[in-house]
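Students often ask why inverse folding is considered easier than folding. One informal answer: many sequences map to the same fold, so there is more than one right answer. In these notes we will look at a single instance of the problem. The structure comes first.
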């Protein structure tokens, strides 16, 4: 009888662990976007938000905070230089931690905003002059 009870406890624990892992795998709040910076909003403390024209032709905003990591996927550009190279026209890939309200663009349009975890530069436009 004692063995059956222990076996039942072991089975229940196994099912609970499996269920917890399954819930974790299904839950995915991480949103990623690829596009070109169309607008940057700055305050005296630095960049506050970036509006990105995505490859899907939608504009999204990403808010920047002290958790945001800036990096570069461009050859010969260090991650430490990435923040200083963010300008309109720069192509980026952004990993976000879910929605964060809305941001108004320079024309007053309300854009869906996300909290940026990582902003990676993928291409910097070159002057054609």
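Output (designed amino acids):
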């Amino acid at each position: 009888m004692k063995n059956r009870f222990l076996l039942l406890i072991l089975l229940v624990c196994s099912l609970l662990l499996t269920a917890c892992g399954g819930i974790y795998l299904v839950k995915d709040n991480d949103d990623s976007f690829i596009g070109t910076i169309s607008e940057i909003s700055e305050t005296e403390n630095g960049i506050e938000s970036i509006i990105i024209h995505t490859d899907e032709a939608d504009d999204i905003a990403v808010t920047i905070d002290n958790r945001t990591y800036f990096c570069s996927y461009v050859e010969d550009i260090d991650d430490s230089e990435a923040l200083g190279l963010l300008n309109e026209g720069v192509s980026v890939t952004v990993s976000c931690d879910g929605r964060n309200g809305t941001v108004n663009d320079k024309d007053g349009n309300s854009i869906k905003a996300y909290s940026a975890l990582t902003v990676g530069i993928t291409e910097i436009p070159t002057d054609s002059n």
